[in-house]
Amino acid sequence: MSKVKYYYDPDTLSYRKIEPKKSRKYRNIFLFLLGAGIFGFLGLTVLLNTNLLNTPRELSLLREKKNSDFQLEILNKDLDRMAQVLDNLAERDNNIYRLYFEANPIPEEQRKAGFGGINRYKSLEGFNNSDAIIATRKRVDRIKKQMAIQSISLDEIKRLAAEKEKLLAAIPAIQPIKNQDLTRMASGYGWRSDPFTKARKKHNGMDFTAPRGVPVYATGDGKVTRADNRSSGFGKHIRIEHGYGYMSLYAHLSKYNVKKGQKVKRGDLIGFVGNTGRSQAPHLHYEVWKDKDRINPINFYYGSLSPEEFENMLRYAKQENQSLD
User: Fold this and answer.
1) DSSP code of 274?
2) Which letter does DSSP use for residue 98 in this model?
3) Is 301 helix (H, G, I), strand (E, B) or coil?
C-alpha cells in the first residue's frame, strides 16, 4: 500500500492530501518495468554464459567438446609435421634418388593432387564442427595419397637399385690375370704387327703374357656360353655373356675350370693360361664386347688396378708392338 502524502495550505490553515498526477504514475510504472526488463536480460545473459544453469549431462557434453577440439588441434599439428617430413622425402626422392637412377621426377601436382568425383565427406556435414572435421579429414586423405605415391616411388627406386647393382656386377671390371702372376702386358688394343705375317693388323683385345697354368678369372658376373676350341685362331677359349650387351672372351687357354651354361661371379676361376690356337707364346688373349662390337678392354680395369698400375698398363697398351696372336 503506497504512502499518502500531505502538504500544508496556509490559506486554509490545514493539511491537504497530495493527489499524484496520472502521467507521473504511468511514467514510474514504465521506468520500473524497463529497469526490471534490463536487469532480467542482463541476468539471463550472465546465467546462459556460465555453467550455473547447465545440467550434469550438458556439463559432460561441454567437457567432451573441449576435449574433442583439443585433440583436433593436436592432430592438425601432427599432420603439419607429417606433411613436412613427406615434403622433405619427396624432394630427396626427386632430386637425389630418382636422379641417380635416371628415373623421371614425380611432378608436384601429381604428388599433391586432390580427389575428384563424388563428395567423399557428405556424412560429416550438418554438425557444429563439420568444417573443422572435414578440413582435417581432407588433410589426412591427401597425406595418405602422398604416402602411397611415395611408397610406389621407393619400390621403383628399390627395383632400379637392384638392377643397377646387377649391372655394376655384370660389367667386366677387373683384370683377368692377377698382377703378381703376369710376366708383362704384351700387347694392347689397336693396330699391331701380326706375329706370323708381320703385316699391320687390327688387334681386337689385349695380350697378357704369363706362364702356362696361371689362373684366369671371370671379369664380371655372367653365364658361360662357350668353353671349346671350335673358333678359328682362339684355341681353347671361354666366352661369358654378362647381360646388358656385354660379353668377354678368354683365348689360348691350356684347360677350363667351367663348362657351357655355368653361371659365374666376378673373380671366379674359369681357366688357365696356355698356348693353344694361333699363338706365338703362352699368354691370355682377352676381349670385351659391347652390343656385338669389340671395345678396348683397358677401360674396364677400374675394379682391380691402382692409379699407378693403370697408368703403367696404359703406357704399355699404347705401344704399337707385335701381338702374340
Assistant:
1) B
2) H
3) coil
Tell me the mean pLDDT in the region 179-195: 73
Q: Which three cell numbers stand for residue 284?
A: 691370355
DSSP helix, strand, coil percent of the chain (3-state; round to 5)? 40, 20, 35
- Continuous segment of H or E residues that includes residue 46: helix 22-48
Q: Return d(Cα 13, Cα 36) in angstroms, integer.
A: 42
Count of C-beta atoms within a 10 Å radius of residue 217: 20
Conformational region of residue 235, where left means phi above 0, alpha means psi within -120 to 50, and beta covers everything else: left
**The three three-digit cell numbers of residue 278, written as one number:** 694361333
The DSSP result for 123-189, as a single string, is: GG-SSTTHHHHHHHHHHHHHHHHHHHHHHHHHHHHHHHHHHHHHHHHHS--S-SS-GGG-SEEEE-S
Q: Per DSSP, what are the bridge partners of residue 6?
A: 17
User: Given the C-alpha cell 697354368, which residue does it identify?
Assistant: 213
* pTM of model > 0.90: no
Write the DSSP string, 218-263. -SSSEEEEEEES-STTT-EEEEEEEETTEEEEEEEEEEES--TT-E
Q: How many CB atoms lie within 10 A of CB 209?
A: 18
Encode pLDDT of 188-232 as tens digits: 787 666 666 666 777 788 889 999 999 999 999 999 999 999 988
3-state secondary structure of 127: coil
* Length of the chain, in residues: 325
Sort 290 into a burial class: Cβ within 10 Å, 0-12 / 13-18 / 19+: middle
Q: CA 33, 39, 41, 47 torsion: positive or negative?
A: negative
Q: DSSP class of residue 2?
A: P
Beta strands at 222-228 and 236-243: parallel, antiparallel or unpaired: antiparallel
pLDDT digits (tens, 9 = 90+) for 137-170: 888 888 888 888 888 888 888 888 888 888 889 9
User: What letter represents residue 173's amino acid?
Assistant: A
Q: What percent of the chain has pLDDT over 70?
A: 80
C-alpha cell at 203: 688387334
Q: How far is it, in rounded angstroms, from Cα 213 to Cα 273?
A: 5
| 138's grid cell | 581432407
